[in-house]
Design goal:
175 residues, Rossmann fold, five-stranded parallel β-sheet, two-stranded antiparallel ribbon, binds 1,3,4-trihydroxy-5-OXO-cyclohexanecarboxylic acid
């Protein structure tokens, strides 16, 4: 929290002298380690390491800490979400192919009570029908898709906004 010049209270997600910066966890699902090489006509030519670097840079600008994680394994993703419980303030997740199948990832997000934003590089609705189904669509705050790597940065800005709103509510004595 910080005080504005006019004496108002402004919630901020970033570092202050007394509090560490809020953490946003970004999770990339299976095969996203191959970004840049994998079907570039669909997913673009940006590599995952470049996306993660851009996210951390934007995080510094926004005053939030960004932790990134990629796994090809559903269980490892569930474990990582559980570890974020009580630590991260928001989750940005592209579950990749698990989007369309994983009840376990959906349950982990719900169990950890983390506001989540779903990201897809491609517009899944312009693709095969089996990609139109998302197990997490109903439990995330919002979904961003079709903007390629830029979608992660849009999601991080949205996560920052969610954290700020949460801080403002907490300051006002709300939930
Ligand atoms: C994806 C879309 C999924 O259908 C696919 O399995 C992926 C990537 C995307 O970012 O567009 O691996 O999540």
């Amino acid at each position: 929290m910080s005080t504005t010049e006019k004496g108002g209270v402004q919630a901020d997600a970033g570092a202050s002298a007394s509090s560490p910066p809020a953490t946003v966890l970004v999770i990339h699902g299976p095969n996203l380690n191959l970004l840049g090489h994998r079907e570039p006509e669909i997913y673009g030519r940006t590599r995952l390491a470049d996306i993660d670097r851009s996210l951390k840079q934007l995080g510094r600008e926004l005053g939030i800490k960004v932790d990134t994680f990629q796994s090809n394994s559903e269980g490892a993703i569930v474990d990582r979400i559980q570890r974020a419980r009580g630590r991260a303030r928001a989750l940005v997740i592209n579950p990749a192919a698990y989007t369309h199948t994983s009840v376990a990832i959906r349950d982990a997000i719900t169990a950890c009570d983390l506001p989540a934003i779903e990201v897809h590089l491609s517009n899944v609705y312009s693709r095969e029908p089996f990609r139109h189904q998302s197990t997490i669509a109903g439990i995330v705050v919002g979904r961003i898709m079709g903007f390629g790597a830029e979608g992660y940065l849009l999601a991080l800005r949205a996560a920052k906004r969610l954290i700020d709103i949460g801080a403002q509510r907490a300051a006002a004595g709300g939930a």
